[in-house]
Amino acid sequence: MALDSKSVSLTFPDGNSRSYAAGVTPAQVAADISTSLAKKAISASVNGQHWDLQWPIEQDAEIAIHTMKDEAQANELIRHDFAHVMARAVQEIWPDTKVTIGPVIENGWYYDFDRAEPFTPEDLGLIEKKMKEIINKRDPVTTEIWDRERAIAFYKANNEPYKVELVEAIPGDEPVRMYWHGHWQDLCRGPHLQHTGQLPGDAFKLMSIAGAYWRGDSNRPMLQRIYGVAFTGKEKLKAYLHMLEEAAKRDHRKLGREMDLFHMQEEAPGQIFWHPNGWTIYTTLQDYMRRAQHRGGYVEVNTPQVVDRKLWERSGHWDKYQENMFIVEVDEEHAREKAVNALKPMNCPCHVEIFKQGLKSYRDLPLRMAEFGSCARYEPSGALHGIMRVRGFAQDDAHIFATEDQIGDECARFIGFLTDVYKDLGFDSFKVKFSDRPEQRAGSDEVWDKAEEALLTATRAAGVEPELNPGEGAFYGPKLEFVLTDAIGRDWQCGTFQVDFVLPERLDATYIGADGAKHRPVMLHRACLGSFERFIGILIEEHAGKLPFWLAPRQVVVASITSEADDYVLEVVETLKAAGVRAEADIRNEKINYKVREHSVGKVPVILAVGHREVEERTVSVRRLGEKQTRVQSLEDVTKELARAATPPDLL
RNA sequence: GCUGCUGUAGCUCAGAGGUAGAGCACUCCCUUGGUAAGGGAGAGGUCGAGAGUUCAAUUCUCUCCAGCAGCACCA
């Protein structure tokens, strides 16, 4: 206990307080309460800050002692300690491995290593075994504060160059905190457990190995990253692994094949061959968006695919994105040089060119110009991912030409528009991120100040408090990102709303103001679904292939139970089709069990079975996907019901 | 693009230095069956592409292409 005669008053969650000598540690406080708590304690919260049991408390504070039952703190701690224990295990097995960083992430942690030999999947088993040995040793975790010079000298002596760089990067002249798990040492902010034996040795698993750049910089060395997951108990680990298995079944690439929606092949990497079923989803969604946009006050346009580089040079894209464009060279007759064009990677410059035709008045603003623009981008091979990240896609793109003081209204209006659309498509909630100025950008700081301020204010005014995403804006302006997640929780930007003062300037777009003089419009880039391709991928995973009836590519299969019902089956199909339902007949020579199974696997939402009884009574037996029991209904009722279900939500 | 892994029938996968197998799907026959796989027969592969080693390569080596995971990128 500290010799300091000063005392501190600690208040517990139940409101009681006790007095201790200043410098008391939560470990001592726990021991003072009970020996069992001293054993079970893993960390504390001191004035709301997650606090190591060994850190001294120098001032009056509110304190709570945590045990494994405090899920949030326990997860944070064990994942962090697992990272250290894993690094220790790796260095014990392969002593020439250099350590770098190992943060906690969702469900687990990773640690980046520099080692000449690649880790193999078999190595993961070895490391896990070694980790369990370390846990069984119940080595104490200790911590000290060192001054920087000492830490730097220590890491230099130990040949840990990455750690040297990390210490040097800690701002100011602050001393640094060092941790030991037994003999093994790491630079760390903490907090940590009391000893390695507090780790649940049966509730972790090393998942995968992957490359990762040192400090996230592609110019620096590539390290080897090992990912692990850990939970407070074995059952939770099991549940998590089970969830991953279930998620794999929702993978849009797998469902795309099983439901015969699309395929991709080597000759066109990153581009989609849409099959009839998939294209039905696509066009149904596009029709819906077209109606929504008309209602939302947009005009629709269409612009060229192949555009001369001159326009891209003027817009600034040639400079920044040349390597990511598909270039089309053409030998023009009598021309001295080949004409160089690019497949359009986006629609904005072409929309500005439409805006510039004729004189625009302030009375024309805001002018909302939409296009389902087909774009081609030469994305890096490693970025491609099913239909979510592709090289050929169509956006539900639009550019709003507006005056500066219309930004707020347009932003709010768009957020409302997007919210309605997402709700219709089954997404009641989504993340909104605000990305501000990137390091490389066009336009002056004053313009950026103005744009960021306008966008953030407008977003908040619309009742949305976005997550901040610093430095991630577009080169011409700040943006809002509307983010949805896939089956295994990866984030995908779908909608976007961007403020752009730069492009109208570069392409010299103007309108005539009320004062009779020329003014520069602001351009608001926005997409609601983002790309149809990505959004459909998300839709498939969100619904596990069981799309809402109106979007389902195959809505109804009418299946005969005996061949004597075939004629009636065909009649039912024709009736449904005439009512606007996507219906097909299954009069194959197969048993009804077989047909039911096949169409259930194919995610057809409704199967109508027809046998002798139904033919005689002019009814059908209705079976809905996922339900076991069936219901007999008259053909007339079913047709009415299904026709209504097949109607897009905006037309009901 | 980078690191690692993978590429065999439409799909899911087995296999070995001596030019290939299963299940499902497909075709035909029998079966007319009442709500998640009825029975039989048949057809189907230049083992991702190219080069090298070898008497012999789909198998070993190299290069390329594509896919997967992660990183970087994402106008």
From TrEMBL:
EC number: 6.1.1.3
Cofactor requirement: Zn(2+)
Ranges where the Aminoacyl-transfer RNA synthetases class-II family profile domain occurs: 251-548
Domain (TGS) ranges: 4-67
Keyword Protein biosynthesis among record annotations: yes
Membrane-spanning ranges: none
Zinc keyword on record: yes
HAMAP family linked: Thr_tRNA_synth
Record keywords, A-Z: Aminoacyl-tRNA synthetase, ATP-binding, Cytoplasm, Hydrolase, Ligase, Metal-binding, Nucleotide-binding, Protein biosynthesis, RNA-binding, tRNA-binding, Zinc
Entries under InterPro entries matching the protein: aa-tRNA-synt_IIb, aa-tRNA-synth_II, aa-tRNA-synth_II/BPL/LPL, Anticodon-bd, Anticodon-bd_dom_sf, Beta-grasp_dom_sf, TGS, TGS-like
Chemical reaction(s) catalysed: tRNA(Thr) + L-threonine + ATP = L-threonyl-tRNA(Thr) + AMP + diphosphate + H(+)
UniProt main location, coarse: cytoplasm
Database matches in SMART domains: tRNA_SAD
Domain of life of the organism encoding this protein: Bacteria
Residues at which Zn(2+) binds: 348, 399, 525
A GO molecular function held by the record: metal ion binding
Organism for this UniProt entry: Ruegeria intermedia
Subunit comment: Homodimer.
CDD domains found in the cross-reference section: TGS_ThrRS, ThrRS_anticodon, ThrRS_core
GO cellular component term of the entry, any: cytoplasm
Name of the protein: Threonine--tRNA ligase
Family of this protein: Belongs to the class-II aminoacyl-tRNA synthetase family.
Cofactor binding remark: Binds 1 zinc ion per subunit.
